[in-house]
Amino acid sequence: MTTRIRTALLTGSLIWCLSAPVAALFSVHGVYDFFSLICHQKADRSWFLWGRQLPICIRCASIYAGFLFGLGAKLNPHVGRLRLAFVFTLAHVVFEWTVSDFVFARIATGLFLGSTSAPFVLTGLEQIWEERRAV
Question: In the predicted model, is pLDDT for residue 2 greater than 80?
């Protein structure tokens, strides 16, 4: 069953990641509305494709891409790496608010946070599945 859960999560993550460029390409306003619930969508912090702003900022896009990568690479959960990713991301947010913003740092911290969190989400879903089967 682990393979099915991983495949379902990987497929869902791929659809999630592709929804942003598809929304920009076809002007799917519902996707923009949905992502506005979880992302600030500031134009100066977002990528543009086909002359249109993506419905998510660069950091969110990087977190989602990192999550997809973490699932695809079959990374193992590692608490130390997840903590480090969180600290780096938080430190960069504070740095960008107080000193200066670097797009590369937003990309790097997003990829790191997304890829290190994916194994924990997968493990959690597998545990939930096993517990439900046992009942």
Answer: no
